[in-house]
Design brief:
The protein is of the alpha+beta class and about 240 residues long. The chain has a domain at about 25-45 and about 100-225. Helices cover about 20% and strands about 15% of the residues. The chain contains five helices and ten strands. It has helices spanning about 65-70, 105-115, 130-135, 150-160, 195-205; strands at about 5-10, 35-40, 45, 95-100, 125, 140-145, 170-175, 180, 190-195, 210. A hairpin with a 5-residue loop joins strand 7 (about 170-175) and strand 8 (about 180).
């Protein structure tokens, strides 16, 4: 499917406002205030030997499944480090890994499918730090498309610039900012701001592992400390 895209001047059309006081990084550093719903979409775990792929990956497993094996409940601040008991290391490699800054293809299709039917274009796809690090001209890139499917052409453009492993935009949003997604380069989850209606559709989708968060929710590798220790430990 050929979808027109335009590369436009790099500009993010919102102000994040002041960040809440926190000992770590929070959702407020990624997404602006004013939305009805904020979600964390957990990137699925995939076989260790697979790097980023432009094809769907099988098998996959969820954070919830690994958390259960580790004797934990999945919460908004669960970190991958807490799942290490469910990721045995045989001395060479663990069976599962999770991609940071990039969403597995089937998961991305489900996510953007819901977002696309709940909004109108144009749509915007920004490739930030990953493009700065990997693309041949070392700068962010912002693309505009009349269709949500323009994200594929935008990602292909970035890969042709030298960022061969990049599939997911760092930021994506619709014209009215009904929703915004942030798949930061260093994060193993995507964070989403949306309307309540869209958020509920994402929460209800059987193949998307999502939880509701707040702008004050921590997002770093020590996020579980926000709850005073490993969250949801079961006995």
């Amino acid at each position: 499917m050929n979808v027109e895209i335009d590369e436009i001047e790099h500009a993010i059309p919102w102000d994040l406002g002041p960040a809440p006081e926190s000992e770590g990084h929070t959702v407020a550093e990624l997404l602006p205030p004013g939305h009805e719903c904020y979600l964390r979409l957990f990137h699925p775990f995939v076989p260790w030997e697979l790097e980023c792929s432009v094809e769907p990956v099988e098998p996959r497993t969820t954070w919830g499944a690994l958390a259960a094996l580790a004797g934990l409940e999945l919460t908004p601040t669960t970190t991958w480090k807490l799942l290490e008991p469910a990721l045995p290391d045989d001395g060479e490699r663990r069976p599962w890994t999770v991609w940071d800054g990039d969403i597995e293809v089937s998961t991305a299709k489900d996510l953007f499918g819901i977002l696309g039917v709940n909004s109108t274009g144009p749509y915007f796809f920004e490739f930030g730090l990953a493009a700065v690090i990997s693309a041949d001209d070392h700068r962010p890139h912002l693309y505009r498309s009349p269709s949500i499917e323009g994200r594929h052409a935008a990602a292909q453009r970035i890969r042709h610039r030298g960022a061969g492993w990049v599939n997911t935009p760092s930021l994506a949003w619709d014209q009215a900012q009904t929703w915004i997604t942030c798949s930061d380069h260093d994060l193993t989850s995507t964070y989403i701001a949306s309307t309540e209606r869209v958020g509920q559709q994402l929460l209800d989708h059987p193949d998307l592992e999502t939880v509701e968060v707040q702008r004050t929710t921590r997002i770093d590798d020590w996020a579980h400390e926000q709850e005073g220790g490993p969250p949801g430990q079961t006995t």
